[in-house]
């Protein structure tokens, strides 16, 4: 029996989503033993949020560029931009999970009113969108990567991709707002 990824996009999407979410929740909830993870210097951990803010900003640009390219009828450029966006997202996630697994989450130091009415809602929406994006991103990426470009147009890639790109973009923007509140404003 021959396994072809193109025939198992839904199953692969589910598998990759489960593994990704297990890693995310494992890191955030402390299920991954800190002693099992190599320790970097404090300078590295201090740099991660700033590096991730840059990664997020570049990802916003590549997502917007990818959307513009497909609207202009340039699918090859669209594909390059979206693959770049995905690599940026994966890089962001690896750095974020590393920091959280070893050091825990960052404490908000601003006023209680800002924490309650601005920071927490922004963080919650950012996190929900980021989680919702994971299966959508895997699905559209697997559809695109397992078929010749000419066949992608006959799939649900465009329909799901519009939703995924929109949610992804908003998640990255809100992530930058969270960064500004945590590391710049307060």
Automatic annotation (TrEMBL):
<feature type="transmembrane region" description="Helical">
    <location>
        <begin position="52"/>
        <end position="70"/>
    </location>
</feature>
<feature type="transmembrane region" description="Helical">
    <location>
        <begin position="12"/>
        <end position="32"/>
    </location>
</feature>
<keyword id="KW-1133">Transmembrane helix</keyword>
<dbReference type="InterPro" id="IPR013833">
    <property type="entry name" value="Cyt_c_oxidase_su3_a-hlx"/>
</dbReference>
<keyword id="KW-0472">Membrane</keyword>
<dbReference type="Pfam" id="PF04238">
    <property type="entry name" value="DUF420"/>
</dbReference>
<keyword id="KW-0812">Transmembrane</keyword>
<protein>
    <submittedName>
        <fullName>DUF420 domain-containing protein</fullName>
    </submittedName>
</protein>
<dbReference type="InterPro" id="IPR007352">
    <property type="entry name" value="DUF420"/>
</dbReference>
<feature type="transmembrane region" description="Helical">
    <location>
        <begin position="163"/>
        <end position="185"/>
    </location>
</feature>
<feature type="transmembrane region" description="Helical">
    <location>
        <begin position="118"/>
        <end position="142"/>
    </location>
</feature>
<feature type="transmembrane region" description="Helical">
    <location>
        <begin position="82"/>
        <end position="98"/>
    </location>
</feature>
């Amino acid at each position: 029996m021959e396994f072809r990824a193109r025939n198992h996009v839904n199953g692969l999407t589910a598998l990759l989503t489960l593994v990704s979410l297990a890693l995310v929740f494992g890191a955030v909830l402390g299920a991954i033993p800190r002693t099992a993870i190599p320790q970097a210097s404090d300078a590295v951990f201090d740099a991660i949020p700033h590096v991730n803010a840059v990664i997020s900003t570049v990802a916003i640009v590549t997502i917007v560029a990818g959307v513009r390219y497909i609207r202009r009828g340039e699918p090859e450029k669209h594909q390059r931009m979206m693959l770049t966006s995905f690599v940026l997202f994966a890089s962001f996630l690896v750095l974020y999970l590393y920091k959280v697994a070893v050091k825990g989450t960052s404490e908000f130091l601003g006023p209680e009113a800002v924490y309650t009415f601005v920071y927490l809602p922004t963080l919650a929406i950012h996190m929900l969108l980021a989680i919702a994006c994971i299966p959508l991103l895997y699905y559209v990426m697997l559809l695109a990567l397992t078929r010749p470009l000419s066949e992608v147009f006959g799939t649900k890639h465009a329909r799901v991709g519009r939703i995924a790109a929109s949610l992804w973009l908003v998640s990255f923007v809100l992530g930058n707002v969270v960064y500004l509140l945590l590391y710049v404003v307060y």
